[in-house]
What does this fold into?
Amino acid sequence: MATFLYRIGRLAYRRRHFAVLIWVALLALAGVGAANAPTAGSSSFSVPGTESQKAFDLLDQRFPGSSSDGATARVVFKAPAGGKMTDPANKKAVRATVAELRRGSEVASVDNPFTAKAVSKDHTTAYARVAYDVPGMQLKDSSRDALEKAAEHARADGLTVEIGGDALQAAPETGATEVIGIAIAAVVLVITFGSLVSAGLPLLTALVGVGIGVSSITALASALDLGSTTSTLAMMIGLAVGIDYALFIVSRYRAELAEGREGEEAVGRAVGTAGSAVVFAGLTVVIALVGLSVVDIPMLTKMGIAAAGTVVIAVLIALTLIPALIGFARRRIRPADAGGGLLRRRRRTAEQHAHRKTREPAAKGTDRPNMGTRWARFVIRRPVAVLLLCVAALGAVAVPAASIELGLGDDGSQPTSTTQRRAYDLLSDGFGPGFNGPLVVVTDARGADDPEDAVKEVTKSLKGLDDVAAVTPATFNKAGDTAVMNVVPDSKPSSTQTEGLVKAIRATGGGITADTGAMISVTGTTALNIDTSQKLTDALLPYLGLVVGLAFLLLIVVFRSVLVPLKAALGFLLSVMAALGAVVAVFQWGWFASLLGVEQTGPIMSMMPIFLVGVVFGLAMDYEVFLVTRIREAYVHGERPGQAIVTGFRHGARVVTAAAVIMIAVFAGFIGSGESMIKSIGFGLAIAVFFDAFIVRMAIVPAVLALLGRRAWWLPKWLDRLLPNVDVEGEGLRVADAEPGRRQEPGQEDEDRDDRLQPVRV
It folds into this structure.
């Protein structure tokens, strides 16, 4: 592989105008497609195979034209202090608001609170339900404006009016903190490289990759039913890995310049060595993201595939666009060793080739150890203490994960400053905590002798259950064979009591079917949340087995070792459990919530654990591949195990540290998002990268490798014969280097001479 990528890097360098033109054309094509694409709405949410989804599908069949997936709004009215909603002036204001709402072009129906019995027992609160023909994200701005204006008119009459439901749902806006994250990444790159040109390349190429990826998602959003969250998460991951992959290529190129190589040769070797690590690191991320499809939740599958697409683009850009841009920058990218000189570096290169096995001791006397070298030596001297301390620390942070509560957000999880949350609280105070999460019970009476009697039996059974506050009268379809009724729990939607009520209703279904022939099923937002959480929990272990198993096999091929991939997987489990513990502590328990702008704590988003596992696993393997390939490269070239660790950290620790800081900055930037799901995922990914990069990869990995010694690179002989040799370490390039009369590409001599004639810009 190293030889193949070496040729790609040299080709991109020589044909740099052509390579840049291709990527610019792709960016323009994707941009035009996004600009001309129809506006996409929210991705339809479905959970195939669950009872709640089957009930939704049944409603669409038996109640055609009901727009079960259409947006809804609850306009909640509260009378002034001392007054009641039944007062003539208040009733007049409500009727005027209802009449105004009915004039909307996308409005399907509006209920009058006084005829729909939507007035609280104390007559202080009432609500009007507004149903729309289209989903919330597809509502026109004029419809939202009309809804808010109607509320303003009622407020002018002295009423307190708030609006709940998904009719006011809008695409999440990009927060200023996301821009700050990119700015921090730029600062880190400048510090790492000491050059604006070197720092600008990873940022520029990452933005090109994200631009192509997100524009493509936008262009296909309507056709593929992709929601706004899909592009946001693709941008988050694509930006992070795009910067990191380019960072590793540019860093290796600077190292090759320091070894005395010039121009095209340095680029080819950078792509051949660091590019091999980029390819395998990208493959692990893609496996983790595409593997989300095993959960069988379409929205999660689309999010994973879209994010995986941006990762593939980032890999291709690192292998082709970066070498091309380096060809334009040439000597404006300075060598990693800027203090010596070309002749001195060439003499050192000759000495290193002549005395490979002893080059490290010689270097000790002439080069000052950097921070990576000092840290690696410290860990090697105290591997047991470092290992125990790090495992204990991550274990302590992971403790809150044992009490994780899962759920899907509703208006109750919105900040208290929003009208949706205030409407939620008004309804809870006026009608009870369970009113915001009614259970929809669908009775399929086609198999019953008398559908009406069967529905009456269902109603009687439901009223006899615990934790039931009310059961609304049944509504039949035109055929008279299917009925729908709402069951209002005594408890709030996210409580364990409500979950128990859902299970109790389903448990009574068997007896009702035996007695009447009718079948009942429970659906609604609350039941769908419960089913989704259960399905995600059930899929977590199979998903882990699939993703970790495939990546384990891939890493065996990369490292030609059994114990190193096993160590990588166990380290990942430590970091992801610690990240989940931190998420629970902040977003569920409320620790440091105010510092992160978390206004409302509660159950963790159901998708959070499995999505965090998938993304963090891919990113964790990034650092494993980048760091350990450097260590293995030194080991296979003759160094002792302990010295190979020091060599790997001397060359790779600074770059991995910079990559981790950049990823943390990019992910942390999404904590400023106004959408709770994006906020929690941004925090979870940022803290997970911190744990994995700085504790697992920088401390636990060298400690374990030091304890294992040569056993770390053990591989059964029969397996060694079966595995393909992918040559991640670039051994093929070293062999070719030793061949006499190594060919030089046409034009290279002139280019290199031009480079040498130009002054070096520091």
